[in-house]
Amino acid sequence: MAASFSGNLAGTVTDLPHFWEHTVGSGHATLALRADWQAQLKRAHDELGMRHVRFHGILCDDMGTLIDQSDQFIYSFFNADQIFDYLLSIGMKPFVELSFMPSCLSSSGQLQFHYRANVSPPRDLSQWSVLIQKIVTHWVERYGIDEVRSWFFEVWNEPNLTAFGSGKQEDYFALYRYTVEAIKTVDNQLQVGGPATADNAWVDDFLAFCKKNDLPVDFISTHHYPTDDFGKPGDDTVTQLSESKRSALRGEAAEVRKQAGNLPVYYTEWCTSSNPRDPMHDDPYAAAFIMKTVLEQNGLVQGYSYWTFSDIFEENYFPSVPFQGGFGLMNIHGIAKPSYRAYEMLHALGTEMMPVEGSHATVDAWLVRDGNSATLVLNNFALPRHAIETETVTFTLAGAKQVTSAMIQRIDLEHANAKRRWEQMGKPEYLSTELVAELHEVSKLKTEALTTTTKDGQIVFEVDMPPQAVATVHFDWA
What we know:
The protein is an alpha/beta fold.
């Protein structure tokens, strides 16, 4: 089968800010004290350009932030400082999710996750306010007001789900009121936002509440996954999605963008699916899904935080299997998955999107310029159980007299796919140093020359695209 597209390097430029690099997700706060977590985060910063990291539980009992000792509150921000010190040392910043509830402030014993996060509302909002004001004041004193003004404070996580609280708007709105007032008391320019909901929920109601009560809101945050429309979060239901849903996440972001008005929009969680053990997270499918989804969000959001950068993650338990369908861009050994390589491709792009003509049922094409070089991005993607096959893609390029060099990188079943090699090894649960090194090598993007032709004074690229594949062609032009 064939797919035909055309682009023009002399066409109208659309800005392509690297909004997907603003923030990346992680599991929960105590993981950030691990050396392997820190090493993987540094790679995500250095190789993928990630600038902020967001995780649950900075206020949880296992962080020791607030405890009750003999009916006396004891505040300790030492562990949080160790994490934030490290982030700043590698050039990153926190996207601070203010969660979950210290047990001594909790209104019930409602617990979530392997690490027993208390997700109930506070029994005393005034004491919650004291905690927030104390910890934010401490960070300002430790890091300086200019630094902390560059952070983001997000109130709670997915309050519309009973898994993370009561699920009632009024409870969350009260929590937001006390939180934002406490933070703005420290400094009015600190950035605070919400509603941090699952499935794009409550945005209109949240903004109406803030307006009615004259409460500041500096940004909108929410989450979405392609499985949100079906069942419960975590269900493996992506296969039920119709082919018309291939761009559903863009449609959802466009609606939130409209609701938010002039406020920045940050999606602080999204992923291939919300299932924490989905084999597709480790496959080339995820790379193709990421490439299409991210580039379709251009112009709609200021941040688009993938959940998560690493399989060093223990919401349910901490598995030892190297490829176990975890959310991460890297597995527990730091071996890059195809999804990681998709972000590596994205990071290498310029910032000027050029016009492209053409359409196809499964293939998409984008043209991104950077001075006198450019990158052609090709994607062959379909949702599970929908028709997809190898396509020969022809791309005709105008606006260049000649292409002086063209190099192609690929992600597909046979390229940048460490899981496939691990399966060929017999799926060993525990990897030797030698096997880890081999899988690191297999995971890498390989660069090869691509021959171009000229037809009617225009440059022609021809690339075979297997199912669930990504390819980038980087070329210099004159």
